[in-house]
Predict the 3D structure of the following.
Amino acid sequence: MGTKGNKRRTLAEAFASLAAEFPLAKGSVADTHSPCARKGCRLCASGKGHAKTIFTYREGGKLRGLYVRPKHAGLLREAVDNGRILERLLAKSGRDLVMSLREADAD
Ligand SMILES: [Zn+2]
């Protein structure tokens, strides 16, 4: 894997350390309201319904969704925000790579 026999971490290993330090996710977190199955529920009768948080993401092109427990919602939003920062950094990294390769060629 590594060149010249030195032990290099794989990209997946490096990413795992990053993910251990920062919550990371790609997708979106949305708050919705939906009725429950209980008969005579006051919240549902009032039309308010029950607050639910859903995390949606793509897996192999398919849109998937998971309910998020209220106590986990904050962390998940933070993870999605971090994911967006990571995407911006990744885009910048490609641009920087092309520019530095050009500079190296100029010599
Ligand atoms: Zn209800």
Notes: Residues 35-36, 38, 41, 43-44, 50 surround zinc ion (CB under 6 Å). The chain has three helices and three strands. The mean pLDDT is 92.
